[in-house]
What does this fold into?
Amino acid sequence: MAQETSTLSISELSDLVVKIFENAGLSGQQASATADVIVAGERDGCKSHGIYRIEGCLRTIAAGKVEPKAKPELTDDGSAILRVDAKGAFSPAAFKLGAPALAERARQLGVASLVINSCTHFSALWPEIETLTDMGLAALAICPSYASVAPYGGKEPLLGTNPIAFGWPRPSKHPYVFDFATSIAARGEIELHRRAGTQIPEDWAVDVDGEPTTDPEKALAGAMMPFGAHKGSAISTMIELLSGVMIGDMTSPEALENLGNTTLSPHHGELIIAFSPEKFAAGRPGNPFVRAEVLFDAILGQGARLPSQRRFAMRDQTMRDGVQLTSDEMQSLQSFLA
Ligand code: NDP
Ligand code: PYC
It folds into this structure.
Protein backbone atom coordinates (compact mmCIF):
# COMPACT_ATOMS: atom_id res chain seq x y z
CA MET A 1 0.00 0.00 0.00
CA ALA A 2 1.31 3.45 -0.95
CA GLN A 3 2.43 5.58 2.01
CA GLU A 4 0.89 8.94 2.82
CA THR A 5 3.03 11.85 1.64
CA SER A 6 3.72 15.35 2.95
CA THR A 7 4.71 18.28 0.76
CA LEU A 8 7.50 20.63 1.80
CA SER A 9 8.64 23.71 -0.07
CA ILE A 10 12.33 23.78 -0.97
CA SER A 11 12.98 26.46 1.64
CA GLU A 12 11.13 24.48 4.35
CA LEU A 13 13.19 21.40 3.53
CA SER A 14 16.35 23.46 3.48
CA ASP A 15 15.68 24.99 6.92
CA LEU A 16 14.99 21.53 8.32
CA VAL A 17 18.18 19.98 6.93
CA VAL A 18 20.35 22.91 8.09
CA LYS A 19 18.84 22.53 11.57
CA ILE A 20 19.57 18.78 11.58
CA PHE A 21 23.22 19.41 10.76
CA GLU A 22 23.60 22.27 13.23
CA ASN A 23 22.06 20.05 15.94
CA ALA A 24 24.60 17.39 15.03
CA GLY A 25 27.41 19.86 15.71
CA LEU A 26 28.31 21.25 12.28
CA SER A 27 29.29 24.94 12.13
CA GLY A 28 26.89 27.27 10.27
CA GLN A 29 29.24 27.32 7.25
CA GLN A 30 29.45 23.50 7.10
CA ALA A 31 25.75 22.94 7.83
CA SER A 32 24.48 25.27 5.13
CA ALA A 33 26.88 24.12 2.37
CA THR A 34 26.22 20.45 3.18
CA ALA A 35 22.45 20.94 3.35
CA ASP A 36 22.49 22.78 0.00
CA VAL A 37 23.73 19.76 -1.96
CA ILE A 38 21.37 17.33 -0.20
CA VAL A 39 18.34 19.56 -0.77
CA ALA A 40 19.41 20.08 -4.40
CA GLY A 41 19.45 16.27 -4.82
CA GLU A 42 15.93 15.95 -3.44
CA ARG A 43 14.73 18.96 -5.46
CA ASP A 44 16.08 17.48 -8.72
CA GLY A 45 14.78 13.96 -8.13
CA CYS A 46 18.21 12.45 -7.44
CA LYS A 47 17.11 10.30 -4.53
CA SER A 48 20.45 8.45 -4.27
CA HIS A 49 22.06 11.73 -3.12
CA GLY A 50 19.09 13.46 -1.50
CA ILE A 51 17.85 13.31 2.09
CA TYR A 52 18.66 9.61 2.31
CA ARG A 53 22.31 10.72 2.67
CA ILE A 54 21.65 12.58 5.94
CA GLU A 55 21.72 9.38 7.99
CA GLY A 56 25.18 8.45 6.66
CA CYS A 57 26.48 11.96 7.30
CA LEU A 58 25.22 11.84 10.89
CA ARG A 59 26.81 8.40 11.39
CA THR A 60 30.09 9.78 10.07
CA ILE A 61 29.90 12.79 12.44
CA ALA A 62 29.04 10.52 15.39
CA ALA A 63 31.97 8.21 14.54
CA GLY A 64 34.32 11.21 14.71
CA LYS A 65 35.38 10.63 11.09
CA VAL A 66 34.58 14.17 9.90
CA GLU A 67 35.59 17.54 11.35
CA PRO A 68 32.28 19.28 12.09
CA LYS A 69 33.54 22.85 12.45
CA ALA A 70 36.70 22.96 10.31
CA LYS A 71 37.20 26.08 8.18
CA PRO A 72 38.46 25.23 4.70
CA GLU A 73 41.58 27.11 3.59
CA LEU A 74 42.43 28.26 0.05
CA THR A 75 46.03 28.36 -1.20
CA ASP A 76 46.69 30.29 -4.40
CA ASP A 77 50.25 30.58 -5.74
CA GLY A 78 49.08 32.33 -8.93
CA SER A 79 49.36 29.14 -11.01
CA ALA A 80 46.67 27.07 -12.74
CA ILE A 81 46.46 24.80 -9.68
CA LEU A 82 44.39 26.18 -6.82
CA ARG A 83 44.09 24.15 -3.65
CA VAL A 84 41.56 24.06 -0.85
CA ASP A 85 42.39 22.13 2.28
CA ALA A 86 39.01 21.00 3.61
CA LYS A 87 40.70 20.04 6.89
CA GLY A 88 38.68 16.88 7.26
CA ALA A 89 35.25 18.52 6.89
CA PHE A 90 32.58 17.69 4.30
CA SER A 91 33.51 18.77 0.74
CA PRO A 92 30.73 21.28 -0.18
CA ALA A 93 32.06 24.21 1.94
CA ALA A 94 35.54 23.64 0.50
CA PHE A 95 34.21 23.80 -3.05
CA LYS A 96 32.19 26.92 -2.26
CA LEU A 97 35.34 28.64 -1.04
CA GLY A 98 37.44 27.66 -4.06
CA ALA A 99 34.93 28.08 -6.90
CA PRO A 100 35.16 31.88 -7.45
CA ALA A 101 38.98 31.78 -7.53
CA LEU A 102 38.86 28.78 -9.90
CA ALA A 103 36.52 30.63 -12.26
CA GLU A 104 38.64 33.76 -12.26
CA ARG A 105 41.84 31.79 -13.00
CA ALA A 106 40.17 29.77 -15.79
CA ARG A 107 39.01 33.01 -17.44
CA GLN A 108 42.53 34.40 -17.15
CA LEU A 109 44.48 31.33 -18.33
CA GLY A 110 41.88 29.45 -20.36
CA VAL A 111 42.08 26.46 -18.03
CA ALA A 112 42.55 26.10 -14.29
CA SER A 113 42.07 23.40 -11.70
CA LEU A 114 40.83 23.22 -8.15
CA VAL A 115 42.25 20.52 -5.93
CA ILE A 116 40.26 19.78 -2.80
CA ASN A 117 42.28 17.84 -0.26
CA SER A 118 41.29 16.08 2.96
CA CYS A 119 37.53 16.21 2.60
CA THR A 120 34.76 13.81 3.55
CA HIS A 121 32.79 13.24 0.36
CA PHE A 122 29.26 11.89 -0.06
CA SER A 123 27.66 14.16 -2.62
CA ALA A 124 26.68 14.31 -6.28
CA LEU A 125 29.04 16.38 -8.44
CA TRP A 126 26.53 18.20 -10.65
CA PRO A 127 25.84 21.01 -8.12
CA GLU A 128 29.53 21.96 -8.41
CA ILE A 129 29.49 21.69 -12.19
CA GLU A 130 26.42 23.92 -12.38
CA THR A 131 28.14 26.55 -10.23
CA LEU A 132 30.83 26.78 -12.91
CA THR A 133 28.58 26.58 -15.97
CA ASP A 134 26.54 29.41 -14.38
CA MET A 135 29.78 31.42 -14.56
CA GLY A 136 30.09 30.70 -18.30
CA LEU A 137 32.74 27.97 -17.99
CA ALA A 138 32.92 24.36 -19.12
CA ALA A 139 33.93 22.06 -16.27
CA LEU A 140 34.93 18.54 -15.34
CA ALA A 141 34.86 17.07 -11.82
CA ILE A 142 36.08 13.68 -10.60
CA CYS A 143 36.78 11.99 -7.27
CA PRO A 144 37.47 8.55 -5.87
CA SER A 145 35.23 6.97 -3.26
CA TYR A 146 36.03 3.81 -1.26
CA ALA A 147 36.86 0.36 -2.60
CA SER A 148 33.56 -1.21 -3.63
CA VAL A 149 33.90 -1.95 -7.37
CA ALA A 150 35.86 -4.80 -8.97
CA PRO A 151 38.13 -3.90 -11.89
CA TYR A 152 36.91 -5.47 -15.16
CA GLY A 153 37.94 -9.13 -15.08
CA GLY A 154 38.19 -9.16 -11.25
CA LYS A 155 35.68 -9.99 -8.53
CA GLU A 156 36.88 -8.13 -5.47
CA PRO A 157 36.27 -4.52 -4.41
CA LEU A 158 39.20 -2.27 -5.32
CA LEU A 159 38.03 0.81 -7.24
CA GLY A 160 35.45 3.29 -5.95
CA THR A 161 32.15 4.12 -7.61
CA ASN A 162 34.21 7.13 -8.78
CA PRO A 163 31.86 9.74 -10.26
CA ILE A 164 32.67 11.85 -13.30
CA ALA A 165 30.71 14.97 -14.18
CA PHE A 166 30.99 17.44 -17.04
CA GLY A 167 29.18 20.63 -17.91
CA TRP A 168 28.99 23.05 -20.85
CA PRO A 169 27.34 26.47 -20.45
CA ARG A 170 24.43 27.31 -22.77
CA PRO A 171 23.54 31.00 -22.88
CA SER A 172 19.85 31.50 -21.89
CA LYS A 173 19.31 27.75 -21.43
CA HIS A 174 20.01 25.12 -18.81
CA PRO A 175 23.60 23.91 -19.21
CA TYR A 176 24.53 20.57 -20.73
CA VAL A 177 25.52 18.48 -17.68
CA PHE A 178 26.16 14.80 -17.16
CA ASP A 179 27.18 13.22 -13.89
CA PHE A 180 27.45 9.51 -13.22
CA ALA A 181 29.15 6.82 -11.21
CA THR A 182 31.69 4.73 -13.13
CA SER A 183 30.11 1.65 -11.54
CA ILE A 184 27.02 0.32 -13.36
CA ALA A 185 24.92 2.08 -10.72
CA ALA A 186 25.73 4.38 -7.84
CA ARG A 187 26.11 2.55 -4.52
CA GLY A 188 23.31 4.76 -3.23
CA GLU A 189 20.96 3.14 -5.79
CA ILE A 190 21.74 -0.33 -4.39
CA GLU A 191 21.20 0.96 -0.85
CA LEU A 192 17.80 2.35 -1.90
CA HIS A 193 16.87 -1.08 -3.32
CA ARG A 194 17.93 -2.68 -0.01
CA ARG A 195 15.69 -0.31 1.93
CA ALA A 196 12.76 -0.86 -0.41
CA GLY A 197 13.21 -4.65 -0.30
CA THR A 198 13.58 -4.84 -4.09
CA GLN A 199 16.05 -6.81 -6.21
CA ILE A 200 18.80 -5.33 -8.37
CA PRO A 201 19.58 -6.35 -11.98
CA GLU A 202 21.87 -9.37 -12.26
CA ASP A 203 24.77 -7.54 -13.92
CA TRP A 204 25.24 -4.89 -11.19
CA ALA A 205 27.30 -6.83 -8.65
CA VAL A 206 28.76 -10.10 -7.41
CA ASP A 207 28.47 -11.50 -3.86
CA VAL A 208 31.44 -12.22 -1.57
CA ASP A 209 32.01 -15.51 -3.45
CA GLY A 210 32.22 -13.67 -6.77
CA GLU A 211 28.84 -14.97 -7.99
CA PRO A 212 26.34 -12.59 -9.69
CA THR A 213 23.60 -11.55 -7.27
CA THR A 214 20.29 -9.70 -7.40
CA ASP A 215 20.18 -9.34 -3.60
CA PRO A 216 21.19 -5.75 -2.69
CA GLU A 217 22.49 -6.84 0.73
CA LYS A 218 24.81 -9.41 -0.87
CA ALA A 219 25.83 -6.90 -3.53
CA LEU A 220 26.82 -4.32 -0.88
CA ALA A 221 28.87 -7.00 0.90
CA GLY A 222 30.44 -8.19 -2.38
CA ALA A 223 31.72 -6.13 -5.30
CA MET A 224 29.94 -3.83 -7.73
CA MET A 225 30.70 -3.92 -11.47
CA PRO A 226 32.17 -1.05 -13.50
CA PHE A 227 29.96 0.41 -16.26
CA GLY A 228 30.94 -0.39 -19.85
CA ALA A 229 33.15 -3.37 -18.97
CA HIS A 230 36.88 -2.63 -19.57
CA LYS A 231 36.12 0.96 -20.64
CA GLY A 232 34.45 1.98 -17.38
CA SER A 233 37.13 0.13 -15.45
CA ALA A 234 39.85 2.17 -17.21
CA ILE A 235 38.03 5.49 -16.69
CA SER A 236 37.59 4.63 -13.02
CA THR A 237 41.31 3.84 -12.76
CA MET A 238 42.10 7.21 -14.38
CA ILE A 239 39.96 8.87 -11.69
CA GLU A 240 41.97 7.08 -8.97
CA LEU A 241 45.20 8.32 -10.58
CA LEU A 242 44.19 11.95 -11.23
CA SER A 243 42.04 12.68 -8.19
CA GLY A 244 43.79 10.35 -5.73
CA VAL A 245 47.44 9.69 -6.51
CA MET A 246 48.17 12.89 -8.50
CA ILE A 247 46.67 15.30 -5.98
CA GLY A 248 48.40 13.58 -3.07
CA ASP A 249 45.23 12.24 -1.53
CA MET A 250 43.69 8.86 -0.84
CA THR A 251 42.75 6.34 -3.49
CA SER A 252 39.59 4.28 -2.96
CA PRO A 253 41.39 1.27 -1.41
CA GLU A 254 43.25 3.64 0.91
CA ALA A 255 40.01 5.45 1.80
CA LEU A 256 38.37 2.14 2.74
CA GLU A 257 41.35 1.14 4.85
CA ASN A 258 41.24 4.53 6.60
CA LEU A 259 37.49 4.32 7.22
CA GLY A 260 37.31 0.64 8.17
CA ASN A 261 33.87 0.05 6.63
CA THR A 262 31.48 1.22 3.92
CA THR A 263 28.71 2.55 6.17
CA LEU A 264 30.38 5.94 6.68
CA SER A 265 31.24 8.68 4.17
CA PRO A 266 34.79 8.36 2.84
CA HIS A 267 37.66 10.81 3.31
CA HIS A 268 39.70 11.66 0.18
CA GLY A 269 40.17 14.49 -2.34
CA GLU A 270 38.54 15.83 -5.48
CA LEU A 271 39.75 17.43 -8.73
CA ILE A 272 37.74 20.05 -10.61
CA ILE A 273 38.95 21.52 -13.91
CA ALA A 274 37.38 24.61 -15.45
CA PHE A 275 37.78 25.70 -19.08
CA SER A 276 37.05 28.97 -20.85
CA PRO A 277 35.55 27.95 -24.23
CA GLU A 278 36.17 31.47 -25.62
CA LYS A 279 39.89 31.30 -24.79
CA PHE A 280 40.30 27.84 -26.35
CA ALA A 281 38.39 28.82 -29.50
CA ALA A 282 40.07 32.23 -29.89
CA GLY A 283 41.28 32.80 -33.44
CA ARG A 284 39.45 29.74 -34.76
CA PRO A 285 36.36 29.90 -36.96
CA GLY A 286 32.93 29.97 -35.30
CA ASN A 287 31.59 30.85 -31.88
CA PRO A 288 31.95 27.78 -29.62
CA PHE A 289 28.60 28.36 -27.93
CA VAL A 290 26.75 28.65 -31.25
CA ARG A 291 28.53 25.54 -32.60
CA ALA A 292 27.65 23.60 -29.44
CA GLU A 293 23.96 24.38 -29.99
CA VAL A 294 24.16 22.84 -33.48
CA LEU A 295 25.37 19.63 -31.86
CA PHE A 296 22.72 19.66 -29.13
CA ASP A 297 20.00 20.33 -31.73
CA ALA A 298 21.21 17.36 -33.76
CA ILE A 299 21.04 15.11 -30.68
CA LEU A 300 17.54 16.30 -29.84
CA GLY A 301 16.58 16.07 -33.51
CA GLN A 302 16.94 12.28 -33.31
CA GLY A 303 14.45 12.10 -30.46
CA ALA A 304 17.20 11.63 -27.88
CA ARG A 305 17.28 13.70 -24.72
CA LEU A 306 20.16 15.58 -23.17
CA PRO A 307 21.54 14.44 -19.82
CA SER A 308 20.08 16.47 -16.92
CA GLN A 309 16.93 17.24 -18.91
CA ARG A 310 14.92 15.02 -16.53
CA ARG A 311 16.59 16.72 -13.57
CA PHE A 312 15.79 20.23 -14.75
CA ALA A 313 12.17 19.27 -15.43
CA MET A 314 11.92 17.86 -11.92
CA ARG A 315 13.48 21.04 -10.55
CA ASP A 316 10.83 23.18 -12.28
CA GLN A 317 8.14 21.00 -10.75
CA THR A 318 9.48 20.92 -7.18
CA MET A 319 10.33 24.63 -7.16
CA ARG A 320 6.69 25.23 -8.05
CA ASP A 321 4.91 22.50 -6.06
CA GLY A 322 7.42 21.50 -3.36
CA VAL A 323 8.91 18.05 -2.73
CA GLN A 324 6.77 15.11 -1.68
CA LEU A 325 8.18 13.02 1.14
CA THR A 326 6.77 9.74 2.38
CA SER A 327 5.71 9.36 6.01
CA ASP A 328 8.83 7.18 6.58
CA GLU A 329 11.02 9.96 5.21
CA MET A 330 9.26 12.60 7.33
CA GLN A 331 9.59 10.42 10.43
CA SER A 332 13.29 9.88 9.89
CA LEU A 333 13.87 13.64 9.38
CA GLN A 334 12.02 14.33 12.65
CA SER A 335 13.97 11.59 14.43
CA PHE A 336 17.26 13.28 13.45
CA LEU A 337 16.14 16.35 15.43
CA ALA A 338 15.08 14.42 18.53
P1 NDP B 1 22.42 8.09 -13.44
O1 NDP B 1 22.68 6.83 -14.15
O2 NDP B 1 21.16 8.25 -12.70
O3 NDP B 1 22.51 9.32 -14.44
C1 NDP B 1 23.69 9.58 -15.14
C2 NDP B 1 23.57 10.76 -16.06
O4 NDP B 1 23.00 10.31 -17.28
C3 NDP B 1 22.70 11.90 -15.56
O5 NDP B 1 23.28 13.11 -15.94
C4 NDP B 1 21.36 11.63 -16.26
O6 NDP B 1 20.55 12.79 -16.45
C5 NDP B 1 21.85 11.10 -17.59
N1 NDP B 1 20.87 10.25 -18.26
C6 NDP B 1 20.14 9.24 -17.72
N2 NDP B 1 19.35 8.69 -18.66
C7 NDP B 1 19.58 9.36 -19.82
C8 NDP B 1 19.07 9.28 -21.13
N3 NDP B 1 18.14 8.38 -21.45
N4 NDP B 1 19.54 10.13 -22.06
C9 NDP B 1 20.47 11.05 -21.74
N5 NDP B 1 20.99 11.20 -20.51
C10 NDP B 1 20.55 10.36 -19.56
O7 NDP B 1 23.66 8.40 -12.46
P2 NDP B 1 24.38 7.45 -11.42
O8 NDP B 1 23.36 6.63 -10.70
O9 NDP B 1 25.52 6.75 -12.06
O10 NDP B 1 24.97 8.55 -10.41
C11 NDP B 1 24.07 9.28 -9.60
C12 NDP B 1 24.83 10.28 -8.78
O11 NDP B 1 25.69 9.64 -7.87
C13 NDP B 1 25.73 11.26 -9.55
O12 NDP B 1 25.23 12.55 -9.32
C14 NDP B 1 27.11 11.08 -8.96
O13 NDP B 1 27.86 12.28 -8.79
C15 NDP B 1 26.80 10.48 -7.61
N6 NDP B 1 27.92 9.69 -7.11
C16 NDP B 1 28.73 10.24 -6.18
C17 NDP B 1 29.81 9.53 -5.71
C18 NDP B 1 30.76 10.12 -4.73
O14 NDP B 1 31.73 9.46 -4.37
N7 NDP B 1 30.60 11.31 -4.27
C19 NDP B 1 30.09 8.16 -6.16
C20 NDP B 1 29.18 7.72 -7.19
C21 NDP B 1 28.13 8.44 -7.63
P3 NDP B 1 19.19 12.96 -15.57
O15 NDP B 1 19.66 13.21 -14.16
O16 NDP B 1 18.49 14.10 -16.19
O17 NDP B 1 18.43 11.66 -15.70
O1 PYC C 1 26.44 6.40 -4.49
O2 PYC C 1 28.26 5.32 -5.04
C1 PYC C 1 27.68 6.19 -4.39
C2 PYC C 1 28.46 7.06 -3.49
C3 PYC C 1 29.63 6.76 -2.88
C4 PYC C 1 29.97 7.89 -2.13
C5 PYC C 1 28.99 8.82 -2.32
N1 PYC C 1 28.08 8.30 -3.16
Remarks:
- The longest helix spans residues 91-109.
- The chain has 13 helices and eleven strands.
- The first strand starts at residue 5 and ends at 8.
